[in-house]
Design brief:
The protein is α+β, with helices and mostly antiparallel strands and 166 residues long. 36% of the residues lie in helices and 18% in strands. The chain has two domains: 53 residues, Orthogonal Bundle (Arc Repressor Mutant, subunit A), CATH 1.10.10; 79 residues, 2-Layer Sandwich (Alpha-Beta Plaits), CATH 3.30.70. Strands 2-3-1-4 form a four-stranded antiparallel sheet.
Length: 166
């Protein structure tokens, strides 16, 4: 069960994964050792999945973003095609979706020609892929990997209202 302190720690780390344990402890008003223990428990429970630097792709020559809808001949719920798509370095996200297509894939490439080559040579080499539809991004207005962290413990407000102690 998460509490308000856990939520605050998650919010702080999501905003700055390089925040020191001592800095987090000061912000939440706890001892550094207790803070570190909480962070380790959040990691063990899978709430913190990892730490990484967010890079600007354009200076690295990967300024073209595209979303590719992929159809697969694989049976529903199969994951072989998804694993093969995810193994392509230019692929940033693979989502199993409902609807006519099977997967929505976010990719980065240097230019439209490189994107075409990626689709032909990498996506086309995957046996289960039967078709693709690609949408090229003209401008990105918002892009984040951040998750909205609630300020209150989920479900707590509802319980207080329901038990007459609001």
């Amino acid at each position: 069960m998460l509490d308000k302190i856990d939520l605050r720690i998650l919010s702080i780390l999501q905003g700055d994964a390089r925040a020191s344990n001592a800095a987090i402890a000061r912000k939440i008003g706890m001892a550094p050792s207790a803070t570190l223990e909480r962070i380790r428990k959040l990691e063990q429970r899978g709430l913190i999945r990892g730490y990484q630097a967010r890079l600007d792709a354009a200076p690295l020559g990967l300024g073209l973003v595209a979303f590719v809808f992929v159809r697969s001949s694989e049976r529903a719920g199969g994951s072989k095609t998804a694993r093969q798509l995810a193994a392509i370095p230019e692929v940033q996200e693979v989502h199993h979706i409902a609807g006519e297509d099977c997967f929505l894939v976010k990719v980065r490439a240097t230019n439209p020609q490189a994107l075409g080559q990626l689709l032909r040579e990498q996506f086309g080499a995957i046996r289960g892929v039967t078709s693709t539809r690609t949408t090229i991004v003209l401008e990105t207005l918002k892009e984040t990997g951040s998750v909205p962290v609630p300020t209150a413990v989920p479900g707590q407000a509802e319980r207080k209202k329901g038990d007459g102690r609001a």
